Amino acid sequence: MARILVIDDDGHALRLIEFALTKAGYEVITASRGEEGLQKAFRQPPDLAIIDLMMPQMDGYEVCRRLRQNERTADTPIMVFTARIQEIDRQTALEAGADEFLTKTATPDELVSKVKSLLAREVSVPRAEARPGQVIALFSLRGGVGVSSLAINLAMALARQPNQKVALLDLCFLSSSVPLMLNVRPKLSLAELSREETTVSLDSLEKYMVAHSSGVKVLPVVLSLVRAAPIPAKTVEHVLAVLKSGFNYIIVDTLSSLDDMTLAALIRSDQIILVVVPEVASIQAATVTLQAFRSLGISEEAIVPTVNHTFAKGGLSLGTIQSALKRPIKAVIPYEPEVLIQAINSGAPLVLSHPSSAMATAIQKLASVLSPS
Asked: Cβ(363)–Cβ(158) under 8 Å?
């Protein structure tokens, strides 16, 4: 007998759905709030979840995302059952991780038929073989161009995609601003790991990570900037290899230096976001960086030149930047200082706190470009 979790804040609708499914022979578990439903799902994963969209505190879209982010429910079939009928609602639900979208104009028989179809589809479709995680490093030889902020928001954007586990590796031991910008308080860091662990497994590594509310796992480089030192390159290599076995994406926030630690991460990255701002010094630094990458054998296809606008007016044109770098710019992040400062001061990444802003939209688009088809 299949177990079906139904999450809906409308008590009348909840009873009708429960009655129809119980009559059809299913075991039904109900929840009237998103958080309650998640707790029940994580404690004992259902065979299928039916979720309403319009719920207080946590809407159905967010419930879908969190089910997909948790390893116990990442593969659970999800049906959104809602009074909303617009195409944008259907599209957003599917992007959040839903497998099926059904409006509440459907009859009980139609609901049961969809449930049977979705459960049968789940049995018949084999799971794809797991692929190693993708390492995406963000780098600029010139500091102060917004690399850490972009790394954080890119991690959040990727984590919002269905079925994605995302790690954020902080290698900026001279500033280590990631925990501060995310408002998390780590108790351990990569520095302790490099001193304490001779061999590293995924289980042991996760002890040094701190979970953000978005589902992103953060591995800070140090706890204190006092006498902070680079992490041995071998440790970085080993940690990246282990993270690739347990996460879909590993976002690396790098130091503005081509030291051994940073090079260890860059050489082992599947993609490198080369961040520039539209001014001469930044473009000169990027040109030097590209020369260094060529000498290191880093593939040109792996490099994603990205312009991050950090001032309002007077910057170099996109055409000038592309001519100087001799390659196309893959992404442009617009200038929105008020939104960015609010996000940093609140410890809430703008992709989450201001998802409709121009900056967040551009970062979401970049995340889509980086995601393999």
From this structure: no
